[in-house]
Each structure stands twice: as C-alpha cells, then as structure tokens.
Amino acid sequence: MPDGSTGARSGHALSLRNLSKVYGSLAAVDGVDLDVPRGSFLTLLGPSGSGKTTILMAIAGFVEPSGGSILLDDKDITRFPPDKRNFGMVFQGYALFPHMTVADNIWFPLKVRGVSKADASAKIKSALELVQMGHLAERYPSQLSGGQQQRVALARAIVFEPDLLLLDEPLSALDKKLRADLQWELKSLHQRLGTTFIYVTHDQEEALSMSDTIIILRDGKIEQQGQPGALYEKPATRFVADFLGKSNFLQGTVGEKKDGAFTYVCGGQPLVQVGAAEHTKVNGDVVVALRPEKIALSAERPAATNAVSGKITAFNYYGSAYHFQVQTEALGELIATTPAWTCQIEPSIGNTIWLGWEPDASVVVRDR
C-alpha cells in the first residue's frame, strides 16, 4: 500500500474524447470531452438522468460507449474489459460478501489476482489502518454499521493499488452526520494515497467540500466545469446557479453602461451590476443571479447600492443561520440567509425589512 508520500505522482491521468452512449433515441451521454489530471479528485455532479453514472460505468468498463474513446495516460482503453483496467470501485450499496470477514473481503481482489492471504497480510493490514478498521478485521459485514461497511468497501477498493478509484454515490445511504464525517475522511484518504479519484454524486455540498474539480452535467452534456469556488461564485448559466447552491434570479432590461458596470431595471426597480457589461446591450434583457447569503438584512434602509424593502413571509431557524423568504413589490419573492448570532432583524412573519447588496455581489448568467 502507498503511504501517501508519493502524492499526485502515483495517480494516473484519464481523458474522455467525444464520449457518447445512446439508448434508442435517448443520448444518455452526448459528446463529452474531459481531462482528469493525475492525482486529482474530480466529481461528476448533476441531477438524475444527467449522465454522470453512465459516464462512470463507461470508465469502469461496465457500459460500452456508442462512440468516442477513453484514454488512460494516453493509452486507449475503450474496449478493455473491466478486469483489465485495474480500477477500484466503491458503490452506494457496499457490495460486501456477507459470508466473509472484513479481512477476507479486503483480501478478495488480491486473491483473484493470485495473491495468497499470507502474502497479502501486510497489504490487508495497511488498508484496514487507512480506513481505521484494523480492530474489526475478524467481524462480518452484518456486525458492522453502515459507515463501517463503507470503510471496508473503501479498503477493498484500494488494497490492490488501483490506477483510478471510482466512487458511485458511496455516502448517499448514510445519515447526514456520518456523511459529513466520511467526507473529511475521504478527502484525507485521497491526499494520503495520491490516487486519482472520480466521484459521482447529486449532493452539492459533497461536491463542493471534497473536489479539486467539479463537472456539472445536464442532459448528457457538460454544462460547466471548474474548481468548486469558481463554479459557485461565477456560475455561467441559470441552471448551474440554481443547481449548485441556491440563487435569486433578477430579470431586467439593461440601461446605462459605464466602466465595466451597468444599470438594469427589474420590476420598475433600478439596480446596478458590476461585471459582464461587455456581454450585455443597452435595452437588452439580462438575468442576474444573487446568492441568498450575499444579501444584508436590516430594519432600516441600508447604505448598500442596491436596496429593496419587503415583508417576511416565512423563515426557518437552523441554529447557525436564519433563512428568510421576503416578498418585495418590485422583485417578487427573494430568499436571504444570515448568521443567527449577527442577525439584525426581528424574525417575525409580516415584519417589513430591508434587503441590500453591492453591485459585485451578483453575477450575470445565461438564461437556460
């Protein structure tokens, strides 16, 4: 087992070239081009039916592409069967052998490669230690919790030092707290191993918290890709802004443009936006995405460049934060989030409050 000292150098690079998979008239994957750098943690993120699992299964060799190619370190492996790809795989349902102990489950991929249990003992022990399961080596899966079973599945997938580790929604069957704990552990494991991880999820928080790169898929195509922070702060389309987190959408007509900024009118309310002025035209339509946490809430009119008043129609308390729904006359309903401990307003339905934000707090998106 690697000790993590080799870092990303121990990983392998993967490329997809015009990959497609068609089922009848449905293009589940439609001409996807993708490069996964060696040693990176890449996440395929999207709603059900977006093509993320089909892409992962094609990489694993379980789905035969209708077109395009899959390259590992520039070597074409498109027609290789799964057992010739040396990829580790972790599933949502663990897929452990119930009649085998933890140690024997982990030994299994080495056994099919002709390694005796005696010769494999050091690797089994190392894999167990990596996932903090060394003390449970002789237990059976039925004697383990869901989180422990998933750790065993991870150990089994890494014990033979795979070229890639493919993970298909491995945490979705776990409760929220355990998912959060295992996210930390998975990220730490990736850093220690240096293996290239390709992860599939529909959970935005998982993708944001663990990934080096996120690929957002929609209808079998890549909608946008990039580092988590860049995607969250600069979504290119309305779909990305709405799927990766939450956004308010302000649709208006462009007015004056000056020095990289422009004014626009939304529901009779004049507003100011910084950025993307070159992609707008005077009297043309524009759609702006505004994250709820970038809105300041106050009882009195704020000094912010953009400010509207409205009435609280609903709110939720989450311990660390309040989430508000506010009905405004000009902009309709807006959602806003504020830390609970610094909340400047009385959270009461029917109260009139002010919402303020600066011109660079929002971003122009394509309306699709």
Features:
368 residues; alpha+beta; Rossmann fold; 2 domains; 6-stranded mixed sheet
Can you walk me through this structure?
One of its GO terms (cellular component) is ATP-binding cassette (ABC) transporter complex. Part of the ABC transporter complex PotABCD involved in spermidine/putrescine import. Responsible for energy coupling to the transport system. Keywords: ATP-binding, Cell membrane, Membrane, Nucleotide-binding, Translocase, Transport. Residues 14-244 form the ABC transporter domain. Belongs to the ABC transporter superfamily. Spermidine/putrescine importer (TC 3.A.1.11.1) family. The chain is an alpha+beta fold and 368 residues long. The chain has 2 domains: 7-236, Rossmann fold, CATH 3.40.50.300; 246-365, OB fold (Dihydrolipoamide Acetyltransferase, E2P), CATH 2.40.50. The chain is built from 8 helices and 20 strands. The protein has helices at 52-60, 102-111, 117-130, 146-158, 176-193, 204-210, 228-233, 238-243, and strands at 14-23, 26-36, 41-45, 67-72, 75-76, 87-90, 164-168, 196-201, 213-218, 221-226, 248-258, 261-266, 269-274, 285-290, 296-298, 306-317, 321-328, 332-339, 352-357, 362-365. The strands form 4 sheets. It has a 6-stranded mixed β-sheet, sandwiched between helices. A 5-stranded antiparallel β-sheet has the order 13-12-11-14-20. It is elongated and about 75 Å long. Residues 2-9 have low confidence and may be disordered.
